[in-house]
Amino acid sequence: MSPNESDNTPDALGLPPAQIGFASARTPHASDYDDVYFSSDDGLAESAHVFIAGNDLDRRWADWPDQRAFVVAETGLGTGRNLLLAWHRFIQVAPPGTRLHLVSIEKHPLRRDDVERIWAAWPAWTDYAKRLCDVWPAPVRGVHRRRLDDRVTVDLIFDDVLAGLACFDGRADAWFLDGFAPARNPRMWQPAVFEAVAAASRPGATFATYSCAGAVRRGLDAAGFDCAKRPGFGRKRDMLVGRRPSADQPSVDPRRVHRPWFTPPCPGPARHIAVVGAGIAGAATAEALARRGCRVQVFDPQGVAGGASGNSQAALYVRPSAAADPRTRFYLSALDYTLAWLARVDPGRLLWSDCGLLQLALNAKEATRQSRCVERLALPTELLQPLDADTAAERAGATLSSAVRGALYYPQAGWVRPDALCQALLENAGASLYQTAVTALEPQAHGWRLETADGALGHADQVVLACGSAASALSDDLGHFEAVRGQVSLFDTRHAMGRQTPRAVVCGRGYVAPPLGDQLAVGASFRPEASHDQPRPQEDRDNLAMLAETLPELGATLAERPSASRVGWRCVSPDRLPCVGPVPDRDAWRRDYAELALDANRVAELPGAMRPGLWVSTAHGAQGMVSAPLAAELLASSICDEPRPLAADLVDAVHPGRRLIRALVRGR
């Protein structure tokens, strides 16, 4: 696909990779812009002079006093040269325990093979370049969060510069304004870009750029930066640096003037966090917070993974629509993050498998939907492949039903052991686990008072509710969430033909995963109206019938009754997106935004009032194993005053206050 074809397809999420050539072994050339990626004199020395020294980063990093990460953002990723240099210098000069957060925007990301080839010419950088290449994402629009080491995180934002800046939901301490020369790529040097950079800057933030063009300086001056010329590098006489004045921030984030209710709350103390819930949502949140130096206590009367997260296997399953709507983009972002996160948490793949996942089309309507999805989203084949029925059977390693019309294949997806994963996450976090229910929360002048079922009292700086539909009982502001009953059936495979058990996860109306030991997990029922906690034989029969729809020969070899069954409850929201973020003050929102009932465009310029230090991660539904890890990273980033790991509009799409706004607009 050419760049122009991608730009003219509004639902396309896949991006065309950069087309490069080589003027010399150390000078890659961008064919699309007829420009080099960096100076032929010495690209690394140029970066050090312009971006590291130009932002005075050695001194600032050496003196960095904050618990939060120092944030560096750049407007052109290119080969990753600036990113690798910043990472290397930070580790050299910053005190132990400090953290760096890098953000880089790129419209045409390089192929991983090209990045490896480029950095092979710089053997001194082999270790750093290899770690970057190991986590290099597929070329898909949006935010891709990766950890480079225990102290350094990077958000690779793949999109046009203005769209990428709109995605960036955070504030930078320093900017690398890079990119091809203004004459070759004027879109990266327009006033709207400089205004967006200023809006995403902290007071006192700096920038540096090699360009001293008059339009660049005037644009940055107009955006509010105090600019100055400095000696340039090599044959370039001048470069430009600047600082944003240390003035107070506006109460409403300027990037959210049309939806001020979603303005992130001011950060509070984050030394001690209480997490209510020890399923995958709570355990992943505890791990994400502990990585940032927080002390975490976890409360759950059922112990670790006592609810739906206690299943022995869960599918890494998403079902994108044929349009790039918020739900599709959120779950694709969640799958991208969760796969990279699992590879870091469990590199030996003891608790998960990327065996691949098949989403079968069992009728003509679903086959048409899948075809439209492939065509319109234009995702790279390393993420999603359309298959005919015969090829799908080959990938499954088992005979499929004659009703199968084709399939979508996710080569990197698979299954997870959520019960064991939750236990491992809490152990890695060093979290204290209390097997008791939190029965009441009371706000204090500093933090929250917790009361538990055994009569104990506790205190935390902040509280995260990750307890499914029970979150509503601890906060009236959240409203009601539906709890849906699901039953998984476990069958003994010793009586099944080994050649018929699948080697990939196979999904139709239900799912079946490859065997774990001698057990085959088949699920799951979906009963919104049910309230019974015990397994039901009829639901086991229903699960077996769903299996027979996709793998009839396997279904015929299994015993009629499973060796075990397990019931779990999934919390769902009306729009089938999770509920993740700060808990709104419902009464304040009803008062502050009452005029929305009269005119949905009448927006009060007030940030949304939140319950200070109270957060929620719930309503993950049947895809919680995919969404919960990203939700945890989102909460931990917000609590610790870091950039969010999602595009800003998707952060707002899962915000707990969205239901209040919809109700107000509808006059309810």
Task: Provide a descriptive summary of the structure in words.
It is a single chain. It is built from 21 helices and 31 strands. With 668 residues, it is an alpha/beta fold. The protein has three domains: 44-247, Vaccinia Virus protein VP39 (Rossmann fold), CATH 3.40.50.150; 260-308 and 419-481 and 574-665, FAD/NAD(P)-binding domain; 357-411 and 482-572, D-Amino Acid Oxidase, Chain A, domain 2, CATH 3.30.9. Strands 6-7-5-4-8-9-11-10 form an eight-stranded mixed β-sheet, sandwiched between helices. An eight-stranded mixed β-sheet has the order 17-18-16-26-27-28-25-29. Helix 10 (280-290) runs parallel beside helix 14 (418-429). The longest helix has 20 residues, at 326-345. The two termini are 47 Å apart. Mean pLDDT is 92; it is low at 1-8.
Q: What is the CATH H-level superfamily of the largest domain?
A: Vaccinia Virus protein VP39
Measured as a percent range, the helix fraction is 25-40%
Low-confidence segments, given as residue ranges, are 1-8
User: What is the overall silhouette?
Assistant: globular
What's the helix count? 21
* Fold-level CATH name of the largest domain: Rossmann fold
Instruction: Round the Cα radius of gyration to an integer and report it.
Output: 26 Å
Strand content: 15-25%
How would you state the average pLDDT, rounded? 92
The top-level CATH class of the largest domain is Alpha Beta
Q: What does the main sheet amount to?
A: 8 strands, mixed
- Strand line-up across the major sheet: 6-7-5-4-8-9-11-10
Q: Kindly give the count of domains.
A: 3
CATH architecture of the largest domain: 3-Layer(aba) Sandwich
Report the span from N to C terminus: 47 Å
Number of strand elements = 31
